[in-house]
């Protein structure tokens, strides 16, 4: 059953007609031609489809597009301003990918992680749950990024790529 | 995926009224489990009533010092809520031990309690499963059951319509069970409060039903009563990988100590049964007794005496025994330091 929706995708207003069964991921890729977010598992298990939905990282494969009507969607592409986002640069500098398929999801997720840490959100590996400030250690990065799988196993380079931006943003010494 | 109509209401009562006339309809919360089940053909609603932001998104103080958690509070926000982290560390830890950052951002408090088992026979429509297709039998008892139930299950053999060894997947529910939370539910007949002890059911002779809620009843909030000694509490989870996996065994525990004695204790287990499992046998054995490793181990063993493991999940019995012991030991050690 078709529904009209409007989205703000990477800063641009977009309208589309979607079947109620359409995921946000499919609406982006198949209806709007925005292919930054990727389809990996389509079950919310791999994180390749991660986007920021109204500023929060989510699996766009598990969001029905019709429920996102009026929302602001930011993909990895949309993080770029005049030039690339610092995460784009550090992923290149640290060789934090091999095939690159999971990378836009990794980067959107990492942007979400940085925002969550800046708000003082704890994680499963945070020792002091009531601390005002959480340091984005390597262990914290690994835990917080566990919803993004990389079949090339570039994890060893993804961690320092995110760590470098964390230092710049003041959430890591 | 079956075609469905998408509906929104302006308030919770409106959503209840919408679904009351739709026997095959369902509420949609964050959708992190339901959308996947629909894609798999396991859930086939013909109407979705979107309640993701319809109930409260606030955490409010209750007069007794407890908290009222709106059913629409996302799991991530609840875990980050300072009052939860300070008053109920086991609750924050349980939430943070579940799913991934992306899923916790989307999943709601109410929806978390109503997620379905991840038993692979339930999610595979080509397999027999009494929960998904009542009367079709259970593939798990003679199949892959390493991660399935050892307590409170029904096993009358693979052909029986009653057999079910599914586990409840929620971490949050285990912590709320230990905390004696009350679930506020709105139905066509009005509002009622359901103790966590009565929300989830064991499979009994009807494995298709996970909870005692009637069709169309909507969780609006969770009341967590005050428990001053829950500041010394823990949620401990063992899983097949370091993060982002369901529990093989989890323990939610809080303990009130009087010198070297256990004044009161709460223990609930996850990954062990069709419902969050309150370890009342262990609690009774411990209350008023010494807070020693030997007493913790003896109480845990007494609790697990009721276990009926299968060939490939018997490891859960010593694992749960050890985890109860270690978790209580950790709480008592921290209390003394």
Automatic annotation (TrEMBL), chain A:
Transmembrane portions of the chain: none
Residue span(s) of domain 2Fe-2S ferredoxin-type: 3-79
PROSITE patterns tied to this protein: 2FE2S_FER_1 (PS00197), 2FE2S_FER_2 (PS51085)
Pathway recorded for this protein: Alkaloid degradation; nicotine degradation
GO function term, MF aspect, one: oxidoreductase activity, acting on the aldehyde or oxo group of donors
Keywords associated with the record: 2Fe-2S, Iron, Iron-sulfur, Metal-binding, Oxidoreductase
InterPro entries: 2Fe-2S-bd (IPR002888), 2Fe-2S-bd_dom_sf (IPR036884), 2Fe-2S_ferredoxin-like_sf (IPR036010), 2Fe-2S_ferredoxin-type (IPR001041), 2Fe2S_fd_BS (IPR006058), Aldehyde_Oxdr_Iron-Sulfur (IPR052914), Beta-grasp_dom_sf (IPR012675)
PANTHER family recorded: OXIDOREDUCTASE WITH IRON-SULFUR SUBUNIT (PTHR45331:SF2), OXIDOREDUCTASE, IRON-SULPHUR BINDING SUBUNIT-RELATED-RELATED (PTHR45331)
Name of the featured protein: Xanthine dehydrogenase YagT iron-sulfur-binding subunit
From TrEMBL, chain B:
Pfam families: CO_deh_flav_C (PF03450), FAD_binding_5 (PF00941)
Positions of the FAD-binding PCMH-type domain: 1-229
Membrane-traversing stretches: none
Oxidoreductase is among the record's keywords: yes
Record has Oxidoreductase as a keyword: yes
GO MF annotation terms: FAD binding; oxidoreductase activity
Domain of life the protein comes from: Bacteria
Coiled-coil ranges per UniProt: none
Keyword vocabulary terms for this entry: Oxidoreductase
Annotated protein name in UniProt: Xanthine dehydrogenase YagS FAD-binding subunit
Organism ancestry: Bacteria, Bacillati, Actinomycetota, Actinomycetes, Geodermatophilales
């Amino acid at each position: 059953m078709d529904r009209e929706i409007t989205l703000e995708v990477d800063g641009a207003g977009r309208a589309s007609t979607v079947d109620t069964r359409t995921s946000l991921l499919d609406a982006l890729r198949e209806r709007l031609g925005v292919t930054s977010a990727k389809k990996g598992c389509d079950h919310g298990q791999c994180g390749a489809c991660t986007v920021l939905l109204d500023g929060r990282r989510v699996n766009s494969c598990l969001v029905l597009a019709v429920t996102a009507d009026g929302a602001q969607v930011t993909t990895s592409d949309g993080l770029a301003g005049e030039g690339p986002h610092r995460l784009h640069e550090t992923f290149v500098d640290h060789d934090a990918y091999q095939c690159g398929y999971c990378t836009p999801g990794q980067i959107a997720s990492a942007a979400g992680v940085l925002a969550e840490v800046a708000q003082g959100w704890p994680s499963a590996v945070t020792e002091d749950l009531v601390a005002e400030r959480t340091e984005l250690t390597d262990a914290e990065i690994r835990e917080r990024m566990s919803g993004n799988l990389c079949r090339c196993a570039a994890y060893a380079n993804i961690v320092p790529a995110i760590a470098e931006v964390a230092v710049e943003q003041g959430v890591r010494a | 995926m079956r075609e469905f109509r998408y509906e929104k209401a302006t308030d919770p009562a409106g959503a209840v009224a919408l679904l009351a006339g739709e026997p095959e309809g369902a509420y949609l919360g964050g959708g992190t489990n339901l959308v996947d089940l629909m894609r798999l053909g396991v859930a086939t609603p013909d109407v979705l009533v979107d309640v993701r932001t319809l109930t409260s998104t606030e955490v409010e103080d209750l007069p007794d010092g407890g908290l009222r958690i709106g059913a629409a509070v996302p799991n991530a926000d609840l875990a980050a809520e300072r009052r939860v982290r300070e008053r109920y560390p086991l609750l924050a830890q349980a939430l943070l031990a579940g799913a991934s950052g992306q899923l916790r951002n989307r999943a709601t408090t109410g929806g978390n309690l109503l997620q379905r088992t991840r038993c692979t026979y339930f999610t595979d429509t080509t397999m027999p499963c009494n929960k998904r297709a009542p009367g079709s039998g259970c593939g798990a008892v003679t199949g892959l059951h390493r991660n399935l139930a050892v307590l409170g299950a029904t096993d009358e053999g693979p052909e029986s319509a009653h057999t079910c060894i599914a586990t409840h997947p929620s971490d949050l529910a285990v912590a709320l069970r230990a905390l004696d939370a009350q679930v506020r539910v709105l139905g066509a007949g009005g509002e009622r409060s359901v103790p966590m002890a009565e929300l989830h059911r064991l499979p009994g002779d009807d494995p298709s039903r996970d909870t005692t809620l009637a069709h169309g009843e909507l969780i609006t909030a969770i009341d967590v009563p005050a428990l001053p000694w829950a500041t010394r509490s823990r949620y401990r989870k063992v899983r097949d990988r370091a993060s982002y996996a369901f529990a093989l065994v989890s323990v939610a525990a809080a303990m009130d100590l009087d010198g070297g004695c256990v004044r009161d204790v709460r223990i609930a287990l996850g990954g062990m049964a069709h419902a969050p499992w309150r370890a009342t046998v262990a609690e009774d054995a411990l209350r008023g007794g010494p807070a020693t490793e030997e007493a913790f181990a003896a109480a845990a063993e007494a609790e697990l005496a009721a276990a009926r493991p299968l060939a490939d999940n018997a490891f859960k019995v010593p694992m749960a025994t050890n985890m109860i012991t270690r978790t209580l030991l950790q709480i008592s050690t921290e209390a003394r330091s």
